[in-house]
Amino acid sequence: MGRTIAKIVGVAGYVPEYRLTNAELETMVDTNDEWIRTRTGIVERRILKDKTKASSDMGAEAVKQLLKKTGTAPDEVDLLICATATPDMLFPDTANVIRDKVGITSGFGFEISAACSGFLYALTTGARFVEGGLKKVIVVGADKMSSIVDYTDRSTCIIFGDAAAAVMLEPTDDGLGIIDSVLESDGSGRHLLYQKAGGSLHPATHETVENKEHFIYQEGRAVFKYAINGMVGSIKQVLERNGLSKEDIHWLVPHQANKRIIDGVANMFDFPKEKVMVNIQKYGNTTTATIPLCLWEWEDKLHKGDNLILTAFGGGFTWGATFLKWGY
Ligand code: UT7
User: Fold this and answer.
1) Which CATH number fits the domain 5-175, given the four candidates 2.60.120.280, 3.40.47.10, 3.10.20.80, 3.20.20.150?
2) Using one digit for the tens of pLDDT, what is the confidence trace for 278-306?
């Protein structure tokens, strides 16, 4: 028997119905389908139109589906971690709102804020709790990005979409689980990708609203370079310290921020296209949901024992890579 690690035993996702197409964006800002497709790879993204619904509602849908799929009763769940960049409120945290919405009263929950790397950070954290003795841990990424996007800013409004997706972790000693993670961060990049106002530094005022400081601000070109370098660096470390070569990897599961970034990372390692999960054309950048949404979509194509490398880069900056063996 090997050491106890955390195995992914199920995955579920939720995307809102409304499709915001490139054609519709053309009517909103000075952009065009060709530019968006060639510069980002995005064709459409889903938007949660219902103003009464938040990130937690999408997270709750994904978690309900996950519980059903894995035959888990709500009160069997020991821990629920929610990664999000768009919490329902600054507090209480979104994890506990989701727990309430799906009827989980056992155990505990908390939120992780690491922007687009949030799911990787949360997955790694959840895995440690399983290694420490918890039996059922849910990790959910949920982001209503449309709530912080300025739909008059063509450099950001074309990128983001709304979604949630979740995985269930359980202990295993068969080696088929989360084996290793490299997580990195550098706060000096915080001025290149952020939401300026709404926190304790710049609480909401008429001025912050007028200055559009509650929306995402991104210096895309600068972030682009950091993103490729960061993910490539983390993947290299994970491959090296686990004695893996690129041939050993069955699937690369990259954060979906830009198709050109994904291609750039994959090309650095010569990963063939067929081994790289890409669904950015359908959903855009859903921040913490991109990676589990890919796992959800590819679930039928995955085989027990497949080697997966997950990688992400996001505001902070935060980035990293996780090596796992698929468990079912
Ligand atoms: O997920 C978290 C981490 N985030 C990322 O990884 C995102 C990283 N960055 C990116 O994906 C890209 O930088 C963007 C998609 C945001 C932008 O693409 P880009 O190729 O870096 O474009 P750019 O900002 O360098 O702009 C090139 C040109 C500019 O015009 P000029 O100055 O060359 O005349 C922009 O004004 O494209 C213009 N432009 C647009 N044109 C049509 C910017 N946005 C648009 C647009 N439609 N939507």
Assistant:
1) 3.40.47.10
2) 999 999 999 999 999 999 999 999 999 99
